Amino acid sequence: MNEQKTPLIRLAKRDDMDPKRVWAIRGASFLVAILIGAIIFMVMGHNPFSAYGTIINGALGKKTAIRQTVKNAIPLLGTALAIAPCFKMRFWNIGAEGQITAGAVAASYFALFWADKLPAPVLLVVMAVAAAIAGGLWGLIPAFFKAKWNTNETLFTLMMNYIIIGVVKWLQGGPWEGRPGSQIIPQFEKSACLPKVFGVHCGWIIVLVLTVLMYIYMSKTKQGYEIAVIGESLNTARYAGMNVGRIIMRTMFISGGISGLVGFVVASGADNTLHAGVAAGVGFTAITVAWLAQLNPFAMIGISGLLAVLQKGATTLQTRMEVPASISEIITGIFLFCMLGCEFFINYQMIFRHKENKEAKA
């Protein structure tokens, strides 16, 4: 009778696993992704070794390729750092895409209308500060509603993305349009563009500094401790006398501010203009980066680099081997799926009914 009530397979939370075993599972998932990708390449009539060689060579084979790979990794890392404190607090910020865009809009305003009024260093600082404030305020809106009326932050932050993207589309075809009918915002003046260091705009320096600061903030400060306590238990945080609503709003303002700064880096360093796709999906991909890194800022550097290599290498694969764009995206998706899927086996175990019964009889 008990056997009938017990499900055939059930999930149970694992105790802390040995770090060596954890990394063994992650390594195995990476190998599985490579094997699945190889099968797809063979079905398409391509040599898997040549295909993977093309991906690596396309991302790291030349200086220009390396620079482009680094350029791809910069917004991924910056956005992952931005959402990390929110996720640590169990506040599901899915609105980084919109916060990046809001920051880019604010930075673009000064780039377009103040470039001839301010010296370049001052202009760039003003653009960065404006972007951080705009992104922070855009993130503060759903945080305020969450703190005041306990609204669903996932849906709220997600919907905020589409609002600001719509604003940019209006600017493109309206007040900020360059040539009439073009629906394109003019390129920034040189003074409004980030300078290059080692052939890549200096945004890479900004995000590396942010990595160190975020590590210190989350692990060494009182505010980081408060975030961790709220993430573990709201009741515990309230019992300890913490103002949960204020901490939520403060954390989201910081998160949105960093995302806005990423928007400034992309608009001023990579694109040198503003357009509706300025965030380019990194607000969503960065969620994967943050989870794979277990919210560790330094681990995010490696994960962002790996995804940037796949992104740049997949583009090269498409052009050199005439592989359809969809196949390149599928390969990238397989790697992401396997890398995320392995976390399930790290955190949970499957218990089979017959095995559980045997252990009970023993």
Question: Which SSEs are present, and which pair or pack?
Answer:
Layout lengths: L1 H4 L3 E5 L5 H25 L4 H13 L2 H26 L7 H18 L6 H30 L3 H21 L22 E2 L2 E2 L1 H18 L1 H11 L1 H6 L4 H28 L10 H11 L4 H24 L4 H23 E5 H9 L1
Antiparallel strand pairs: 1-4, 2-3
Helix pairs in contact: 2-3, 2-14, 3-4, 3-13, 4-8, 4-9, 4-11, 4-12, 4-13, 5-6, 5-7, 5-11, 6-7, 6-11, 8-9, 9-11, 12-13, 13-14
Overview of the structural elements:
This protein is mainly alpha-helical and 362 residues long. It is built from 15 helices and 4 strands. It has a two-stranded antiparallel sheet. The longest helix is centred in the middle third of the chain and has 30 residues, at 120-149. The two termini are 19 Å apart. The mean pLDDT is 91.
Largest sheet: 2 strands, antiparallel
What characteristic shape results from the CA principal axes? globular
**Parts with pLDDT < 50 across at least 5 consecutive residues:** none
Radius of gyration from CA coordinates: 23 Å
Distance between the terminal alpha carbons, to the nearest Å?
A: 19 Å
Secondary-structure-based class equals mainly alpha
Number of strands: 4
The count of helical stretches stands at: 15
Mean pLDDT: 91
Helix content class: over 70%
What string, H for helix and E for strand, traces the elements in order?
HEHHHHHHEEHHHHHHHEH
Portion in beta strands:
under 5%
Strand order of the largest sheet: 1-4
